[in-house]
Amino acid sequence: MEVGVVSEGIEKLRDEMVSVLMELVRIPAISPDSGGEGEYDKAQKLLEIIKDWPFDKVDVYNAPDPRAKNGVRPNILAYYYGEQGEKSPRLWILTHLDVVPPGDLSKWTITKPFEPVVKDGKVYGRGSEDNGQSLVASLYAVKALMNLGIRPKKTIILAFVSDEETGSKHGLEWLMKEHPELFRKDDLVLVPDGGNEEGTFIEIAEKSILWMKIKVKGKQVHASMPGLGLNAHRVAIDYTKALDGLLHKKYNARDELFDPPESTFEPTMGGNPSDAPNIAPGEHEVVFDCRVLPQYKLDEVLSDAQEVAEEIKEKYKKEIDGKVLPEVKVEVLQRLDAPAPTPKDSEIVKLLQKVIKEFRGKDVKIGGIGGGTFAAYFRKLEIPAVVWATLDEMAHQPNEYAKIENMVEDAKIMAALALL
Q1: How many CB atoms sit inside 10 A of residue 44's CB?
Q2: 16-20, 164-168, 170-174, 247-251, range with the lowest pLDDT
Q3: How far apart are CA 214 and CA 307, in angstroms?
Q4: DSSP collapsed to 3 states, 311-342
Q5: Which positions ≥6 away from 51 have C-beta within 8 Å?
Q6: pTM for the model
């Protein structure tokens, strides 16, 4: 009975949810790593929105970052206690405040990135789906309970954190390091930052992530006289081909829990300072994005990258002006070693399966993804966490949008998780 009443209460809040999502989208919250000021303004707007809501406790934890506005990256925890007060079991719903940069503005054909519009049942704008849709859904799952005076069985902890898009060093990772007392082994955790269009995919496992940059240094020279220098571009191409082949051959296991079921090793970014067709560059960089099945160790991947570097250095070895070239250096940009998966029979998985079946009449698929969500941090602490939402997968795309229906319906699922 309560679940149905709360669902009706959420429906009545639909227009308010859309309005709040648009308010939040209007505020760029781009990491200083990507040239932005951070999440301060967006956090202040969120605190202003909820200031009169009857949360039992709202705490702000400011991670220091001198590059960001006011020198901080805010992380907000809002508590709504369950029927046993502070003794109630706890459900975290964790979303992030930051967004990625808009990218090529010419590809935004519906509206400008931070000027949200509603069209065809969707809210368009940067950050609308990633992660605004779920952020607002979590807020209004709780507000519906508040409006009805209902205390759920579980205390709901709404976490709105910074820095998800660029590594969480000033977000969840910082919170866990500086405030370990906030987290309990018996907590249940929902991270609504991944899923599918039907809302039928529950992620319980992630691959390890390794971003590595390879820096090659040779000797710039006029392209008509290549023997006088060492073309770093050619060395880097050879290195990239050799490493790519080795990694795919060596780490070739498959695990059908994941999609795709194998480890992936993708050269993504690259370039050199050559600004003319007739200059053979003396420097070149290439970046690999590696998503590695948990059975493999990232230390071994890095060791392979270094071994190939030594082989390439020997192959192109040349002394110029008393200096032995090329130099080939491997630099880690980001690393996340995958923890053990959330067990399929854990309470949060079974509860979410049950609620989705009751609300939508659909069976869910349980699986793994390429990595990069907050859930991994909880799993490292052996706290079961799942990633789930109903998404059109518009994250990071031009013309990003959030489907209003998804936002409202996911709020109902979130409320039900706390009630059961």
Answers
A1: 15
A2: 164-168
A3: 13
A4: HHHHHCCEEECCEEECEEEEEEEEEECCCCCC
A5: none
A6: 0.86
Of 336, 369, 396, the position where a domain reaches its end is 336
Q: Are residues 224 and 294 in the same domain?
A: yes
Write down which residue in 305, 336, 367 finishes a domain.
Answer: 336
Domain match, 199 and 212 both: no
In this predicted structure, the answer to whether residue 194 has a pLDDT above a threshold of 80 is: yes
CA 33 to chain centre: 15
> From the DSSP assignment, how many helices (H) and strands (E) are in the chain?
10, 19
Whichever domain contains 249, its CATH number is 3.30.70.360
Which residues have C-beta within 8 Å of that of residue 366, sequence separation ≥ 6?
Answer: 201, 202, 204, 344, 349, 353
Measured distance CA(208)–CA(353) in Å, rounded: 26
- Active site annotation includes 164: yes
In terms of residue numbers, what domain contains 327?
Answer: 208-336
234 lies in the same domain as 150: no
Give the strand pairing for 117-119 and 122-124: antiparallel
Q: 98 catalytic, yes or no? A: yes
Query: Is residue 124 within a helix (H) or strand (E), and if so which, with residue range?
Result: strand 122-124
The predicted structure's pLDDT at residue 374: 86
Residues 154 and 185 in one domain: yes
Residue 1 has pLDDT above 60, yes or no: no
- Same-domain pairing of 303 and 376: no
Report the run of H or E that residue 78 belongs to, with start and end: strand 72-80
Q: With 60 as the cut, is the pLDDT of residue 112 above it? A: yes
**pLDDT of amino acid 24:** 98
Considering the candidates 39, 65, 129, 164, report the single residue annotated as catalytic: 164
Residue with tokens 């990595």: 371
Q: Strand 283-292 to strand 264-271: parallel, antiparallel, or no bridges (unpaired)?
A: antiparallel
Residue 221's closest CA among 290, 146, 148, 276? Answer: 276
Q: 275 and 317 share a domain?
A: yes
The number of domains in the chain is 2
187 and 212 part of one domain? no
320 and 356 in a single domain? The answer is no
Residue 386 maps to which CATH number?
3.40.630.10
Q: Decide if pLDDT at 296 tops 70.
A: yes
- Which of the residues 98, 129, 187, 206 is marked catalytic? 98
